[in-house]
Amino acid sequence: MQVETSSSKYGIKHYPDAIREWKKEGNYFCFYTSETILEVRVIADKIIRFRYAADGTFQRDFSYATSDTLEESPISFGIKEWEETFEIYTDVLKVFIARDNLRITITDKDGKVINQDEMGFHWQHYLQKGGKIVYCSKLVQEDECFYGLGDKPTDLNLRGKRLENYGTDAYGYQKDTDPLYRNIPFYYGLHNGIGYGIFFDNTFRTIFDFGKEREDACSFWARGGEMNYYFIYGPELLDVASSYTRITGTPELPPLWTLGYHQCRWSYYPDKRVREIAAEFRNRRIPCDVIYLDIDYMDGFRCFTWNKEYFPDPVGLIKDLTAQGFKVVVIIDPGIKVDPDYSIYQEGVKNNYFCKRADGALMEGDVWPGKCVFPDFTNPEVREWWSSLFKGLAETGVRGVWNDMNEPAVFEMGTFPEDVRHDYDGEEVSHRKAHNVYGHLMSKATAAGMKKYLLPNRPFLITRSCYAGAQRWSSVWTGDNVSSWEHLWLASIQCQRLAVSGLSFAGSDIGGFIGEPDGELYTRWIQLGTFHPLMRTHSASNETGFNQEPWSFGPDYEKIVAKFISLRYELLPYLYTTFWQYATYGTPMLRPLAFVAQHDPATHNCTHEFMMGDALLISHVSEEGMKEKAVYLPQGKWFYFWNDTVYNGGQQVTVPTPLEEMPLFVKAGTVVPRYPVMQHTYETPVTEMLLHVYYGEETTQSTLYEDAGDHYGYKNGQYNVINFKQVSSAEQFMLKKKYYVNYEVAYTHHRIILHGLPFKAGTVLIDGTPLTLTNNNYLPDGTISFIADRGFENITIHKA
């Protein structure tokens, strides 16, 4: 019999009793109590999957989150029997399962506790709605910190918080508003220098309590489905991040232009206004690659149509914008207008593609077009149909799609009632199970359609709602934020959190979607957005008539905004390389300081500082009128970007914050590749690749990745990976280079810009050939500049 304990409003809680038998098959182990089954599957040496069947029967093993390419590849594992426990071991982990109650303790190979059940797995019958509420509670370790869970607008360290995942249209959300748009049931724990992660793959409404109810317990539960979670061991947090993306998948490389600057507004129309915006960017010499069209481009807000009054010739418009270097992204929502003369509505009704209520009636609700019905994206046939609808947009010249309102959001109702039925790839479930993946599957179908019809070019997709694993096909943004200094801080927190939750390709609505920023706030937001993977200004300016373009705040602000957008374009090779690392290794593009210096307790609650890639440390200006800011630097040496002042890490330093600057540091020893400034990513061929090299006495690795930037040749080996290694001392500078080269670039040489050389240069050798430095090589800012052939392998500078 199962153990029963206290009751609650949902009924009596049940716990497993003693193990009666067990078996091993391949890389998984099953433990049987009187009714409960625990399955422990060794996915890899550091990844263990736990599944519980409360009543002795497992549900269908199916996931919308996990990657199709996930390989189960444990190198060495086995099991030992002890008097009170079973021990499953790998080369790095030990998993102990208590014989009397299935409670789990996970240690490293030396016996140091990583994660430990408190009450462990338990459940309640959900008498009101059916099924079970499944729980798991863990002990909180000494000084443990928690991170992750996607876009939660709260402190980076989640200790003491309770949060839930139930995709919600949270218009004008504030700090600590919960839930929001995305549903990422994955978190990290960090204690005693040990990092781990738990991915709770359950699409029902999930709740996570990080010591709020009881300080010594961390709990997670779902109002339906299975207790099914992956335990991921680091011990480094970045290793946990990589393993999580191994489970849920890494993205394809985006088109290079998507890493440029994006301009959006609700709404740019008619076509004359769009042309004016494009002309302003080019005339003012402010770089931009992307212009968005919001819902007003449609005919009565009907998806996949054009308003013939506002946009009589969309093909001609997009062709002209393309000639100026702009790509066009259009919005597509899930609501399909109820209109018997609307072909998409007719097709959906005829083929039974729309969601229905429990009694068989169509799910109807009001959104922008008025009364709408909604495709059931959990049906693979519907996803295929939806994908086919993008042919017309692709043929018109549209290069990207923006999926909005897909939590799903419904006016007045909030979202779908729970009795709405879904196919769920053949399972037939209620909206309780499908809600958190509705927008996820809409965006997946959208991405598939755009990819199909844009070949050989790469598509771009941005979605508001999704589930774990959406990084495989989409970018995201932080939703309907507000023009305020608090929201500037939240934008930084949310993008860091999204990055470590698998969704690196993220940004916020620069300047705030709701309200009107002043010039200072907008400028400071542009500065932060320069270092977010997605850089997009967006505003609801149809409500106020206020314009929120880079030139909207007067020439003094415009000059600074243009400076930072231009810097963004200079850094494109660095950003693209960082994206390649993310796509290849699963490492987040943005890294909170706790993720790069987890053994330093001072970093565990840092929220303002983060790293973009391996070299750049950023701390945004977070208050109006701020003249200086204290910034914490991890161990090592750091160059201040604006003047090359060198700071020792492991301490807090204070730097001035004039409006034209923000706190920005470069890690000593790194190589930061840069382009010349361009007005869009393909304005001119890059004839000179700049390598900014920052002197350091610790051996340091840096990388430059290159490919065509907008087709799939890279999947066939058409790319370059160039690895730099700096091995310098107080007497000598040395930069070594090794590379894989299978893509022809336009430039034939590098301009080396050497920062911080601590001695007077004597002999300079490039692959053994002497180079004589003249006064022209010494720049006024203290750097040394010289040319090296693209194929160089070793540069050495000896002290004079």
Automatic annotation (TrEMBL):
Residue ranges occupied by any DUF5110 domain in the UniProt entry: 689-729
Domain Glycosyl hydrolase family 31 C-terminal: 586-672
Coiled coil spans: none
Organism: Chitinophaga fulva
Any one Gene Ontology BP term: carbohydrate metabolic process
PANTHER family, per the entry: ALPHA-GLUCOSIDASE (PTHR22762)
SUPFAM superfamilies membership: (Trans)glycosidases, Galactose mutarotase-like, Glycosyl hydrolase domain
Swiss-Prot/TrEMBL keywords: Glycosidase, Hydrolase
Domain Glycoside hydrolase family 31 TIM barrel, first and last residues per copy: 251-577
Protein name: DUF4968 domain-containing protein
GO MF term list: carbohydrate binding; hydrolase activity, hydrolyzing O-glycosyl compounds
Family note: Belongs to the glycosyl hydrolase 31 family.
Gene3D superfamilies found in the cross-reference section: Glycosidases (3.20.20.80), glycosyl hydrolase (family 31) (2.60.40.1760), Golgi alpha-mannosidase II (2.60.40.1180)
InterPro entries: DUF5110, Gal_mutarotase_sf_dom, GH, Glyco_hydro_31_AS, Glyco_hydro_31_C, Glyco_hydro_31_N_dom, Glyco_hydro_31_TIM, Glyco_hydro_b
Domain Glycoside hydrolase family 31 N-terminal: 38-209
